[in-house]
Amino acid sequence: RTRLVGGNWRRKAKILLSSPLNCKVCHRVCPGRLFPFHPLRPRTRSAHRHPRNVISRVRRKEIIRVISGVLQEYLVFEEVSISDYTYIVDRLEEIGYKKTWNRGVAYDFHHVLTYFPNSHRLIMSSPSAVHGSILESIMTGLDCVLDTIPVPKTTLGFRTMTAKTIITDSINAISDLSIILCKGSRFQRFVCLMECAFLQSNCDVMRKLNAYVRDIPDLLVVGKILVKEAERYASLGSDSSVALQLRSSNTMTPEEWGHDQGADDFHRVVVDGHTWFSLSSVEIHVWTRRTGRSEIEIDQLDGGEYAVGTLYPTVNLGDINRIFQRGLQLIKEDTFRELVATNVDRSLLDRMEAWSPSPSALDSTSLRSAVVFGTWTTAYERYLCWRSELKSKP
């Protein structure tokens, strides 16, 4: 607990809020991480506002400043009340917190907010190319299987989506990948949700999955993709000899980027002596609901309802394809029950009963290619962001 004593408490609060502090959960230095503190009321009687209200405004403005400032890939804020969160979201929507850095090629970075109202925890992440390319490959594989379900989409169908808003009692989030059951063109319910953790901590991703399972009882499948870097990325700055050399040259095009590295060097992208990306591992974890259970047992790491696979350093998707086949079988059973309840023709029920999901929903070659593309593109995005930051400096 920190007490701010005396008439200078407003300036002290601003200094405290602006200081980078170590995050106990993700063990990263997170600028603007806010801890609870209780300032004393200034001794002067001329103050018309309660200090806590003023401090709340300071905290809100500090979070908005950090999020809407230079690109941050992952930030954690503690002790953000529901009213704080509502104000922050409204203000960010007003100013538009989508960022675009234009240097020959346009790249869009979207800040994604996740809020846990019970613990007052706010997380901001910026999805990257390595994050998006893997999700897109998985979504394509699942789409190909779901499209073979022999039911007219005007009657019942499944839609895979990215960036779907989820609001429940214990979480406000945007899911990375979702499969939605639709009746005609109307949303019915979620049957699968997946998250991809690149810079987020595994602890924060598991918080999200636990909230999904607890608050959305109809879920049949949940999963996470863990992309880990070998070493934490550090911006080049502006004072080193490498920075001065790059600063004096023109911005590299995508074709020029990493032209002297081989195609197999994607796990460690080093350009002009600086490491822009270093890959340690890529894992996929998937859980399905057990027969007879009302919800997915996400704490279970054994048995036939859980599987883990790898995309780097080795490719091993055998168990993951098996567990996805089981999840798709659950989707088949769910579809059959929905059709029975809507009194469709018997011929349609027969076709649905005869349908079997593919045993290989995910293609290892496609996913490996997605990892390679994602690492190179993420490294180039970081280079473009660094060049953009230099423009604001003399």
Task: Describe the fold and architecture.
This protein is α+β, with helices and mostly antiparallel strands and 394 residues long. 36% of the residues lie in helices and 25% in strands. The protein has helices at 9-18, 51-68, 82-95, 129-146, 202-215, 241-247, 318-341, 346-354, 364-391, and strands at residues 21-22, 29-30, 74-77, 98-103, 105-110, 112-116, 121-125, 157-161, 164-167, 172-175, 177-183, 186-197, 221-229, 268-271, 274-288, 306-312. Strands 8, 11, 12, 13, 14, 15 and 16 form a 7-stranded mixed sheet that branches. A 3-stranded antiparallel sheet has the order 3-7-6, with no helix packed on it. A hairpin with a 2-residue loop joins strand 11 (177-183) and strand 12. Helix 2 (51-68) packs across helix 3 (82-95). The two termini are 40 Å apart.
Brief digest:
The protein is an alpha+beta fold and 394 residues long. It contains 9 helices and 16 strands.
Low-pLDDT residue intervals, each spanning 5 or more residues: 1-50, 98-109
- In helices, the fraction of residues equals 25-40%
Please tally the helical runs, counting DSSP H or I stretches of 4 or more residues. 9
Strand content: 15-25%
Overall shape? globular
Distance between the termini: 40 Å
Topology diagram in text:
Blueprint: H1 9-18, E1 21-22, E2 29-30, H2 51-68, E3 74-77, H3 82-95, E4 98-103, E5 105-110, E6 112-116, E7 121-125, H4 129-146, E8 157-161, E9 164-167, E10 172-175, E11 177-183, E12 186-197, H5 202-215, E13 221-229, H6 241-247, E14 268-271, E15 274-288, E16 306-312, H7 318-341, H8 346-354, H9 364-391
Parallel strand pairs: 12-13
Antiparallel strand pairs: 1-2, 3-7, 4-5, 6-7, 8-11, 9-10, 11-12, 13-15, 14-15, 15-16
Helix pairs in contact: 1-2, 2-3, 4-9, 7-8
